[in-house]
């Protein structure tokens, strides 16, 4: 009797990713900002300063929507616009210390909630997730 590893069901993977992503996004209880607004903060925190056009592309929204989001974030002290040193006509959007604190606070709260939820799993379930993490990281890398 041969023992074959289970085949990867792409439809099931997609559904689980969608459901997990929705859950993970909502784990932090602070919901003062829209998903796109928070995504802009996370993009700037992870990727550094960015032009509005690049944010429009990465966040998949219109130029006017990104302008409104950045204006609100700037008003809230979470980002600031500075001249682009490589092109004086353009501006770069930078995350501020306050913006970074929002991202880090949400990340810490998400980790705490995930730890709590993972505590409800069996040791074998936790081990299965741990074993899958390198492959999931490779999926992310393959998309870049």
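Q: What amino acid sequence fits the structure above?
A:
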């Amino acid at each position: 009797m041969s023992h074959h590893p289970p085949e990867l069901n792409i439809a099931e993977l997609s559904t689980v990713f969608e459901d997990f992503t929705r859950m993970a996004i909502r784990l932090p209880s602070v919901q003062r900002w829209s998903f796109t607004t928070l995504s802009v903060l996370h993009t700037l925190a992870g990727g550094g300063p960015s032009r509005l056009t690049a944010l429009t592309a990465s966040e998949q929204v219109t130029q006017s929507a990104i302008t409104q989001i950045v204006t609100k974030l700037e008003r809230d002290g979470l980002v600031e616009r500075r001249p682009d040193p490589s092109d004086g006509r353009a501006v770069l959007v930078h995350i501020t210390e306050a913006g970074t604190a929002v991202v880090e606070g949400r990340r810490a709260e998400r980790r705490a909630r995930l730890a709590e939820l993972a505590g409800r799993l069996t040791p074998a379930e936790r081990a299965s997730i741990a074993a899958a993490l390198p492959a999931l990281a490779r999926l992310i890398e393959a998309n870049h």
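Q: And what stands out in the fold?
A: The mean pLDDT is 91.
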